[in-house]
Amino acid sequence: MKQTKKCLSFLLVIAILVCGITTITAFAINDNQSGAESEIQPMMASECDSFPDYPGDDPSVSPGVGWEWRGPELLGAWFCPSTTASLHPHLNSIAHGPHWDYTTNQGGAQYRLYPDGRIERKK
């Protein structure tokens, strides 16, 4: 019984360490030119590590830092290598109106992101 508790405690510590390492954020100093004190703000290691806002109406423009285009011009998608998330434009959709399909990771949850800020989970 004590061996089991030690093993579970060890696994819990490892899990906490792994989760902590994957969520490490970098800090940047925001210098304002007025000479006032610098403000330290947390920054994500990559913008594509978080749930995106509506990427805009021009699919040729990257949705942010860390995204790279994969596939043919009209059929491809923006892809985030660090999370395997993807964003595919459907700006001429008749059935749902203009939106982007966001997939959290390969085979993960799928959402529609609309220009008005609505987010709809795909079934």
Features:
123 residues, alpha+beta, 6-stranded antiparallel beta sheet, two-stranded antiparallel sheet, 1 helix, 8 strands, 28% strand
Structural description of this entry:
- By secondary structure, the chain is an alpha+beta fold.
- 17% of the residues lie in helices and 28% in strands.
- It has one helix at 2-22; strands spanning 26-30, 39-43, 68-70, 77-80, 85-90, 99-103, 110-113, 119-121.
- The radius of gyration is 20 Å and the shape is globular.
- The termini are far apart.
Number of helices: 1
Mean of the pLDDT scores?
72
Rg (CA only): 20 Å
Structural class: alpha+beta
The ordered H/E elements are: HEEEEEEEE
Beta strand count: 8
Model regions low in confidence, pLDDT < 50 over at least 5 residues:
4-45
What coarse outline follows from CA principal-axis ratios? globular
Estimate the helix proportion, in percent. 10-25%
Query: What summary fits the major beta sheet?
Result: 6 strands, antiparallel
DSSP strand content: 25-35%
Report, as a whole number of angstroms, the end-to-end distance: 44 Å
What's the arrangement of strands in the largest beta sheet? 3-4-5-6-7-8
Short description:
By secondary structure, the chain is an alpha+beta fold.
Give me the secondary-structure topology.
Blueprint lengths: L1 H21 L3 E5 L8 E5 L24 E3 L6 E4 L4 E6 L8 E5 L6 E4 L5 E3 L2
Antiparallel strand pairs: 1-2, 3-4, 4-5, 5-6, 6-7, 7-8
